[in-house]
Amino acid sequence: MLRIEGRATKFCDRISRRSFIQIGGLAMGGLTLPQLLQAEQQNQRPQSHKAVIMIFLNGGPPHQDMFDLKPTAPAEIRGEFQPIATNVPGIEISELMPRVAGMMDQFTIIRSLVGSEGRHDSFQCCTGHRFRDPKPQGGWPSMGSALSKLQGAVDPSVPPYIDLSQKMAHDPYNIKGPGFLGMAHSPFRPDGEVMSNMTLNQISTVRLHERTSLLEKLDTFRRKVDHKLASETSDNFTEQALGVLTSSRLVEALDLEKVDPKVRARYGIDDPKVLGFDPKMGYQALMSRFLQARRAVEAGARMVTCSFADFDYHSDNFGRGRKVIPLLDQGVAALVEDLHERGLEQDVTVIVWGEFGRTPKINKKAGRDHWPRVHAGLLAGGGMQTGQVIGSTDKWAEAAVDRPVHMQDVFATLYHNLGIDTVTTTIPDNNGRPQYLIERQEPIRELI
């Protein structure tokens, strides 16, 4: 948390001890900001601005009702939605996704995703690893944390890994963190109180610099420090930290108040109760997150993640789908259209997927249950070959019958788009042993 206020009066200069300590925390796991910047500089990696935006559809989206409809299947399989033609001849998707259908030439559908272990958890979508894989001490890092370690920050004032997801009630849904890489590579989560404290309330830049002498005395807030700050370089990193505090780059990127109303309208209106849940549960259809994601990568983030609504439709699959899927359609279409208009389609890869699919057979509550055998995903940007469908399933969307694509193959492709060779790239774990980013290291050939 970053909190610099003028109201507290515990010190003679009217700033509280607790408030000033929070300067060092930045809500990034308790690691001090000067240490974070030092760790990034120590990487000495070449800087680029390739990026990934991952839209995590927590709960397991119904592939049969979105990307892999089976109109000739029995009624208890095909459901209530009809397929519609897209702007790519021969490709059809759900009638609830007309915007994506109208620009299918800018997307690729994978209908034959395999490798899911069927858990309600973001782990596989964040790390590429399976639950049952042997884990190094500290656990596997998420992709965003790996990028933070390997490539560092594009801009010192913008964290390389940003998570725009809300805090979700089912904790395993929440986007994963740095694993064995440590707190220096945690995702920055600018939600709620953190964003409200990323401003200098009643304090000028001059007054802020006058108070830097307090930093060494009060900065006992850190925990799990990966690298001790060398005394001879502390002043340099403190100065960089103050540069982050006084920079408006990230705040402006995430602040949508000044965005062109026409652009904002394209993305749609936030609906906190689209599914009737208590907003505090975190399963909201926040269309603004798609726009913030685009603005965050444009500002310098290497990876941005966000969740969207909820797809665990064990009952009322079609009623809920009618509410949520059109909103997803609008947000994803607006995001990809925006990336193309701003010339970012070669640099930014968009991946839209969930942790597994849903059962072909509709249950007695008009829902679909968990189905890890096969599911679907949507890709765009990244300089990939789009306007195609990869893989196919059987007549009931029950199993992959052509070109099974493992979830790790998707990760290999994402890393490839970022210029990272998964065959040769390793990261040392806590014991100094080199760890490959993923086990399956060949990108999807149809996309590159």
Task: Characterise this structure.
The structure is a single chain. The protein is of the alpha/beta class and about 450 residues long. The protein has one domain (about 45-190, about 250-435): Alkaline Phosphatase, subunit A. Helix content is about 30%, strand content about 15%. It is built from 15 helices and 16 strands. The strands form 5 sheets. Strands 1, 4, 5, 6, 7, 10, 11 and 14 form an 8-stranded mixed β-sheet that branches. A two-stranded antiparallel sheet has the order 2-3. A hairpin with a 6-residue loop joins strand 2 (about 85) and strand 3 (about 90-95). The radius of gyration is 23 Å and the shape is globular. Mean pLDDT is about 85; it is low at about 1-30, about 45 and about 215-235.
